[in-house]
Amino acid sequence: MNRFAHAIAFCLVLSPAACSSDAGQTAAAAAKPAAIDGPRGQVSYMVGLDMAKRLAPIKDEVDIDTVVSALRAAHAGAPPRLDEAQIAKVRSDFVEHLQRKREAGRQALAQKNLGEGSRYLADNGKQTGVVTTASGLQYRVERAGRGARPAADGTVRVNYVGRLLDGSEFESTYATDHPAEFPLNQIMPGLREGLMLMSPGAKHRFWVPAQLAYGETGLPGQIEPNATLVFDLELLEIAR
Length: 240
Fold this sequence. Notes:
This protein is of the alpha+beta class and 240 residues long. 42% of the residues lie in helices and 18% in strands. The chain contains seven helices and seven strands; from the N terminus they run αααααββββαβαββ. Strands 1, 2, 3, 4, 5, 6 and 7 form a seven-stranded antiparallel sheet that branches. A hairpin with a 4-residue loop joins β3 and β4 (169-172). α1 crosses α3. The longest helix has 41 residues, at 84-124.
């Protein structure tokens, strides 16, 4: 279960109860944290930190004082102020709210990246040596190769570095210290098209628009939706 799911699960098993904290004591504690002595106190503090980490993804969605009061009440054995049906309804509504919010954020990011990528490629296509194909793929020959070019169903051995437009690297065969081998019909359309333009020994730089890369889906945790990608690609050999 990921951090997002953990946060939902943890938050929603707690029942809110009315209780306010002492502002003066809170301010004093923040100014000078008290020492934590003994195994029980240290374990308790550790549990509190773990809870805070799990709540972090949804910290703007919850009132921490209500969370703490619900925890105190439940720990003391007090009856919950919401019954099981109410809790189930709150849980369901909250999960739907988070899903809608996450999807809205994803769509906004996808539109932002699509616009930035389009503007970048429009400028980049004007640079000396940059060729734009009919599909929108851009490339520049860094080193020419010799011989036949791979077929659409061929298998190749390559070295490459993949980067985002900001220059940050997300993948590299040089980092793993060995080339990659793969069939062309199992890779993103942009790289498939690019490799079919190369001969063994060639090295090209490719700018791959979103629709020829990971598109609106992106690669969760690694590549944002509608990201334009940059590859430095070296074709070592046509394996078959």
